[in-house]
Amino acid sequence: MLLKTFGWSFAITVIGLALAGVLWGWQGLAIVGILSILEISLSFDNAVINAGILRKMNAFWQKIFLTFGILIAVFGMRLVFPVVIVAITAKLGPIEAVNLAIHDKAQYQELVTSAHPAIAAFGGIFLLMIFLDFIFEDRDYKWLSWIEKPMAKMGKLDMLSVIIALVVLLVTAMTVATDAAHGAGDKSATVLLSGVAGLITYLVVGGISGYFEDKLEDDEDDEDEEGAAAPATKGTGAAVGLAGKAAFFMFLYLEVIDASFSFDGVIGAFAITNDIFMMALGLGIGAMYIRSLTVFLVRKGTLDDYVYLEHGAHYAIGALAVILLLTIKYEIPEVVTGLVGIALIGLSFASSVIRNRRDGRPGDTSGTPSEVTSGV
């Protein structure tokens, strides 16, 4: 099971480190290894979030996530994305941007870093929406019940998460962005525009995937009510079509989430190297492990056995969203971001273990309503 799921990650690690050693020597090998660890530490909560979505997909789409999806993650977000950012912010052509990245690495790094306020605002608001929609939803299992119970009641107000996200964006633009650390001058307009773009992206992609998912569930309920006496072909085509659409848009949603998580990794990588190929290789290896870990969590049923893991991951997302917005003005070490996420997930895992032992049936997710909502 372990080798089957992580086999490609192990193979890519060996090949990637060997390639780094051949191209850049021992120093390059060390840098690529450090970047891989950086990516894994910053994105562990990403794997838990992805697993919560990926477990709704069939085996085919899980394979798409691990194959085609990893190409987008590695080459799209870790190699192409920084070049595109430079091309847009510096108003350069794609070829000019690539030449700059290869031949003038210092200028390339400066341009990517100056685009940080826009990147942080987009990613921060997108991730904040994920956290808010989670915390405002009434769930059977509550981890921090003293927070989640009142939040679930507040969540009955329509569009509350959108309102809060817009308020946070306005406050950020009027305070943090007025004296941005990355790039001189007032970045308020840039932050507002990018934050709104992040909000729109979340609402569009998440809304469409949610629509098709709900539609599919409704069709399945209708089929269950019809019973075994219904004709074998009745509703089959529609169900398959809806499943495909739902899976496709959920896949897009996963890719946007991965993109938002990768922002801090790409920016943080410049503290280690400004060589785009070292960066892509190191972060790409780390991204492979996150993908494999996602599938591992799904196939092992870990989120069903340890019911508070998703809570911890979403709290980590909320923390990352706040940190991203704060980094528009303040320098926050990547190690802080990584440790916050790992600490929250670790605490949620420990709470899940305690719950399972208290119930006397480790891994069992059943229980009475009082047991289910007890939390910490």
From TrEMBL:
It holds the Pfam family DUF475. Keywords: Membrane, Transmembrane, Transmembrane helix. InterPro entries: DUF475. The chain crosses the membrane at residues 7-26, 32-53, 65-90, 118-136, 157-177, 189-212, 232-254, 266-291, 312-330, 336-354. NCBIfam families: PRK14013.1-3, PRK14013.2-5. This is DUF475 domain-containing protein.
